[in-house]
Amino acid sequence: MTNPTTARAILEETRSTQPGRKGATMGIKRILVVDDSATERHMLKDLLTKAGYDVFSSENGEDAIVKARQMKPDLILMDVVMPGLNGFQATRAISRDPETKTIPVIMCTSKSQETDKIWGLRQGAKDYVVKPIDREALLAKIASLG
What CA dihedral angle connects 106, 112, 113 and 119, to 10 degrees? Predict the structure, then answer.
């Protein structure tokens, strides 16, 4: 049987972070936040930056698709309700594009109906979070993807 202390050390080693990056797992480093609300973008950027992630932002679905192709972020946090291309449409485009389909998307939206969640996951999202965002829950979801 493995010593619990050794098992914990191995687990921590596999979850290791880059030097100077508290919280950010090795798998997820760069996050693209997509939201038409400047307040939401700022709040998410602040939360994620403090957790050790490099954060970039986009105001709409069209720009998110372009940035996903150019930047190849490790994760996209996608709002749903936005002018122009909505988050469902942008997620579908990103998840079906050969250049971006491996980038996980977490929907972060005020749309809280079960049908919205199911639809978001059917468009290619890996997870779905309802606003207001629970900081610890979001960070746990991100860590689980890393």
Answer: -20
Mean pLDDT taken over the chain: 87
DSSP 58: E
Stretch (H or E) spanning 121: helix 114-122
Could you tell me which residue, 6 or 79, shows the higher pLDDT?
79
Q: Which of 98, 124, 99 is nearest to 107 (CA)?
A: 124
| CATH, domain 27-145, list 3.90.320.10, 3.40.930.10, 3.40.50.2300, 3.40.50.620 | 3.40.50.2300
Burial of 46 (0-12, 13-18, 19+ CB in 10 A): exposed
1: confidence class by pLDDT, cuts 50, 70, 90: very low
- Contact criterion met (CB below 8 Å) for 115 and 109: no
Averaged pLDDT for residues 36-54: 98
